[in-house]
Amino acid sequence: MPAHESSLDSMSAAASVELAVEACLQRYPANHIYVAYSGGVDSTALLIAAKNFMSGCPNTRGRPNKRGGSVSRLTAVYIDHGLAGQSQDWLQHTQEVCLQLGVALEVRSVDVSPVGNLEANARTARYRAFAEVMRDDGVLLLGHHQLDQTETILMRLFQGRGMQPMRNSGILGPCYFARPLLPLSRAQLVSYVDHHGVPWVEDPSNFETHLARNFLRHEIVPRLSAHWHNLHTAVQRVAHDLHAGDEALIHALRGLPKKVSLELIPTAPAVRLAWLRAYLSTRGVYDVRDAELFGFCQQDSVLTQVQLGRVGVQLHIYNGSLYFEADCYADQPASTHIGIGRILELPHGTLQLEVVNADHPLAIPYKGAFAVRFRQGGETITPARRSRQRLKNLLNEHRMPPWQRDSYPLLFQADMLVCVPGVAVSETFAKLQQSTAQENALWVVAVWEDSHGT
Predict the structure, then answer these.
(1) Partners of 337 in the beta sheet?
(2) Does some domain include residue 3?
(3) DSSP letters along 338-372, please?
(4) Are 303 and 386 in contact (CB under 8 A)?
């Protein structure tokens, strides 16, 4: 274990770390705490504080939080990137520490692409693994601290990406993530860990200054700190102000539907980029790269339809509107049936039949359940007072977004397309049924409610 790096009062450091972790955990309705644990001093401090939080629980169900939930489980998560020769030694170290603290450990190995930015690729693989581990109502704690925030802001500034700070919290997979240690210095964390007598390891690559972040940490930040003694406090203040601006925009956009008129979206590229990022944040999408969004902004004024495919979602521009779509349109049953009194639940909406008067413009005579199928190609229908139409042309005429057409529910009787809900009914079918219908025959209308992405 490295030698002491600070003469900070250990009791003061302990209070700061544990208060920061407790304040963080009180904000989440989580019953399971996950700690991203690498064996380094930052994540070790986080693991100890989370363990102490659990140990202070008033009962076996866990310590209650402000949203009414309770914390009952703690799991350390170690991600093996397979990039360092010491990875097996570090794994053994994490196993020993978790055994010492009485904390469950989950280990995941990931494959990191060597093509492009290795650090970015490792980060992407790591967060994907975290999302896969968290399978229940939980929160993932990350051990980033004050120096990490300073480095991140400087890195992004020098890379021309703006002064975008690390977020204090957000959504990852099915759960939340949070960084409770951002206000604290590394020296406080070292003092806290040393006070508890828990060993920690140092990654030798942290001192390789050919890596951009390490160059900042060892060559640039110390010189800045020597001249501006309040550097980290000042950067924290900037980060807080930037977060406040982002949150204000997100708050203003929260509640917008999946379909937004382009007239409501700023036209200046930089402003539109910020608007799109905030809009995506309201839907829990954070890891879209600036380059992808910028490319989207550049194209959408020219093309009638553009798509940004990432993290299971797409953005489209079609017929003067922006669409946000989750990637589940292909998950339809091959065929099913629907009758009166049944609500058919599909991955992107609900379909039901409602009894109406015969003069309803989309009324269908009802003598039994209809088959529900999806577009295969070549379907035709004869709407009222019109000649036979190809389904493809009819959907295009009604401005149905092209990516939704193959998953739009269609009603069939035998092999005849009877109804395209909300669009058209077959006059041929209606006449055939009317010729044999009784005076008290039932008429229904197919009601489709697209809930996907709302």
Answers:
(1) 371
(2) no
(3) E-TT-EEEETTEEEEEEEE-TTSTT-EEESSPEEE
(4) no
